[in-house]
Amino acid sequence: MAQAKLTKRMLDALTAPETGQTFVWDTEIKGFGVRIGAAGTKTFVIQYMNAEGRIRRVKLGRFGVLTVDQARDLAKIKLGAVASGEDPAEEARRARNEMNVSELCEWYLTEARAGRILGRRNRPIKESSLAMDESRIRTHINPLIGKRIARHLTIADVEAMQDDVAKGKTGKPRSGGRGGKATGGRGVAARCLTTIQAILGHAKHKGLLAEHPTKGAKKLAGNKRTRRLSVAEIETLGKAMVYAEQQGVSPTGIAVIRLLLLTGYRREEGQAMQREWVNPMGGFVAFPDTKTGEQVRAIGPEAIKVIVAQPQIAGNPYVFAATTGDGPFTAVSACLQRVCGFAGITGVTPHVLRHTFASIAAELGFSELTIRAMLGHASQNVTQDYIHVDEALKLAVRRTSDEIAKLLAQGAAKLDRLRLVA
User: Fold this and answer.
1) pLDDT in tens, the chain (422 residues)
2) Angle subtended by helix axes 251-263 and 231-246, to nearest 10
3) CATH top-level class for 101-205?
4) C-alpha distances in angstroms, 114 versus 93, 118, 244, 340?
5) 185: how many CB neighbours lie within 10 A of its CB?
6) What's the half-sphere exposure (Cβ side, CA atoms, 13 Å) at 256?
7) Please, are residues 366 and 400 in contact by the beta-carbon 8 Å criterion?
């Protein structure tokens, strides 16, 4: 524990520790010091023992925002209050308890992005998930209940918020170049409730709230997505993909569509797949990260053919490379809509392709447990020890993929016959 008289010159010369944090305590005012973090941030603090005999530490402000003299004067005031029996740390805690919902949400986003709030399996929350949380906060939660004091929220408050989102009261054009319009609806409303409930739960866990004020609020039942492509629709899609490519639709986008249907992979798993993850001989793809963490997933020969057929672009690691830059192809959803337009099929999203793969697997007689493993689902009933690429799982994936490839080929053949007849 270093001690020295704190001066601007001395603080400017301090270097950051490789890990953790270090403190330098002022030799003139006992309990006044500066904390240096691994990122180089220097923060003035005071440390003292309260009336209960507990060591407390309170931040005064960052060096640069506060001068050394300003921080020293503030330390004298705070430590003088301690001598009078006050507890600045407890006052700060009470002030946090008066945070409104908007401030609490901002705290959550900051702490989660710093890795100090953990999500599923006690892992840091993914940036993609935080981006969705932030969108719900900015678009729906803050406009409706952002000014309410967090600890005074009631179940009725958050359920009313959910009802307002479901009715579209927060609908508005999106900002930030995303296009479209945020319209709300039951699904979005339910996810907004889940988000605010989780934030309040994290705040209680971290000591910002004594109790979870809205525990027990009921989430709207969503409309479960059961859409899948019928056998006839798969054949029609096969015909439409051939026709779409003839009409100048992106062959890369069409290839991603084919891969998603042949594997049941999630949209991002397919279109952002990197070549180094794919093991054609082993019949698997080693994803370093998915919605449910790192996974090794089986892949059938028909899908591997799609991957191998993609042109390699120097400096671009992705299987499905963007036409410009070094990123992945990202327009599969728009491409799917064009292809389905040619086919006269409606209501199809990348998730429908995933559900179709699962449905075909079920029709072939594979169990729910096996299908969940094929899709990479996390489940309390399917342990990580079970979800590995064994020969039985490879066989299930291959049979399902082959069946779908056969249906697509049958549809494409019908287009060929029509063209020959013409």
Assistant:
1) 688 899 999 999 999 999 889 999 999 999 999 999 999 999 999 999 988 888 999 999 999 999 999 999 999 999 998 988 888 887 777 666 688 999 999 999 999 998 889 887 788 888 888 999 999 999 999 999 999 999 999 999 999 999 999 999 987 765 554 445 667 788 899 999 999 999 999 999 988 888 999 999 999 986 666 789 999 999 999 999 999 999 999 999 999 999 999 999 999 999 999 999 999 999 999 999 887 778 889 999 999 999 999 999 888 999 999 988 889 999 999 999 999 999 999 999 999 999 999 999 999 999 998 999 899 885 434 334 444 567 888 999 999 999 999 999 999 887 755 443 33
2) 160
3) mainly alpha
4) 21, 10, 45, 42
5) 17
6) 32
7) yes
Q: How many CA atoms lie within 13 A of 405 on its CB side?
A: 17
- Read off the tokens for 33: 């010091």
d(C-alpha 5, C-alpha 18), whole Å: 24
Contact criterion met (CB below 8 Å) for 411 and 239: yes
> Edge-to-edge strand order for the sheet containing 32-37?
2-4, 21-26, 32-37, 42-49, 55-62
The CATH number of the structural domain formed by 2-90 is: 3.30.160.390
Considering only the C-alpha atoms of the chain, give the largest distance between any 2 of them, rounded to a whole number of Å. Answer: 98
- Take residue 103 and report the two structure tokens written for it: 């401030």
Residue 271 · residue 256 · CB < 8 Å: yes
Q: Domain limits of the chain?
A: 2-90, 101-205, 231-421
CA distance 377 to 367: 14
Q: pTM surpassing 0.90?
A: no
- One-letter identity of residue 385: D
- Alpha carbon distance 341, 69 (integer Å): 70
What is the rounded CA–CA span in Å between residue 127 and residue 181? 22
Which residues, 6+ apart, have CB-to-CB distance to 191 below 8 Å?
Answer: 132, 136
Contact 144, 132 (CB under 8 A): no
The domain defined by 231-421 folds into hpI Integrase; Chain A (1.10.443)
Report the alpha-carbon distance of residue 14 to residue 253 in Å, rounded.
54
* Rounded Cα–Cα distance for residues 272 and 18 (Å): 34
The alpha-carbon radius of gyration of the chain (Å, integer) is 28
